[in-house]
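Query structure, 316 tokens:
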């Protein structure tokens, strides 16, 4: 009798493809101490076409990674085109025929010779790693129960919110922890001005009783999500709805007919209650459901008019 041996999972680490489980980082890794890393979360979706898998908005994610890295003075080792090939190669090596989450991470590693001990960005080397993990939808299909957090979002004047910086996520983790302790799934975070910013790993949209759709502007200390931009474009092209990008007061959450979140991980997800009070009917609303259906069609490659958002992974 032969026993099937699970194929190793590969990572792209420090310029080469290696077994992910074999990667070791020194305890002195600077990003571990100071949160000085940047990352991306990208999804590849199973397709019905000739390519069994395609990556959604890969270019936009890699461009944001490069901008985030620039904020921390990290020079990525490869161009966007080269990184694209690395991601596709990694997916092939990991034989990811099903939905997969891709996590590029660029991080400060070690003090260069002559750099004195301390918190800093210059004079510190950086390293780059990409890993993948098989991952389908992970938020409850019936929607999220949210809490308006007492933990305020770190303002951009302190840490630029447009950059996806690892250290910033301590802020989000504290908010999530509070939400869980109060029997909720996720946190809605306010800015220092009391207006809505975003959820822990997603942007937030509010649908009014008059059918208007609003979301906080990029100046509201949010990460300008790629799914957020996708949702805004789908609203315009599919439903003729112009999304209002404007400050959203916390009080509007209680009045809203529908609230939903957008993010690579959560995709399009209804918020069914806020602070234990139902939003609208307490179930996914019509606007959210319509958007979710189109988004699903688009990411699965069933809408040729949006094919430019998908990078096919051939020969898996
Ligand atoms: C704090 C935060 N806001 C918003 C988002 C949504 O961004 P995107 O749609 O690009 O995944 C994420 C997820 O990356 C996030 O971590």
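Result returned for the query:
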């Amino acid at each position: 009798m032969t026993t099937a041996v699970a194929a190793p999972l590969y990572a792209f680490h420090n310029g080469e493809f290696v077994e992910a489980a074999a990667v070791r980082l020194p305890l002195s890794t600077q990003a571990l101490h100071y949160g000085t890393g940047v990352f991306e979360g990208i999804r590849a979706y199973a397709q019905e076409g000739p390519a069994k898998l395609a990556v959604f908005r890969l270019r936009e994610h890699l461009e944001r990674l490069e901008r985030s890295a620039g904020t921390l003075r990290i020079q990525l080792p490869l161009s966007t085109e080269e990184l694209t090939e690395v991601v596709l190669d990694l997916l092939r090596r990991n034989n990811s025929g099903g939905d997969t989450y891709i996590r590029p991470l660029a991080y400060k590693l070690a003090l260069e010779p002559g750099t004195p001990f301390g918190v800093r960005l210059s004079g510190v080397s950086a390293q780059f790693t990409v890993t993948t993990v098989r991952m389908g939808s992970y938020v409850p299909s019936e929607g999220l129960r949210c809490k308006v957090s007492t933990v305020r979002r770190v303002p951009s004047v302190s840490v630029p919110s447009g950059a996806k910086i690892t250290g910033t996520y301590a802020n989000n983790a504290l908010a999530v922890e509070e939400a869980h302790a109060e029997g909720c799934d996720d946190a809605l975070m306010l800015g220092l001005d009391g207006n809505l910013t975003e959820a822990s790993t997603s942007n937030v949209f509010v649908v009014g009783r008059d059918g208007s759709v609003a979301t906080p502007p990029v100046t509201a200390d949010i990460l300008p999500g790629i799914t957020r931009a996708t949702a805004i474009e789908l609203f315009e092209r599919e439903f003729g709805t112009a999304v209002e990008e404007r400050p959203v007061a916390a009080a509007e959450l209680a009045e809203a007919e529908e609230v939903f979140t957008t993010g690579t991980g959560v995709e399009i997800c209804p918020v069914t209650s806020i602070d234990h009070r139902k939003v609208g009917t307490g179930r996914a609303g019509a606007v959210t459901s319509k958007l979710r259906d189109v988004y699903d069609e688009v990411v699965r490659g069933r809408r040729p008019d949006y094919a430019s958002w998908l990078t096919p992974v051939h020969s898996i």
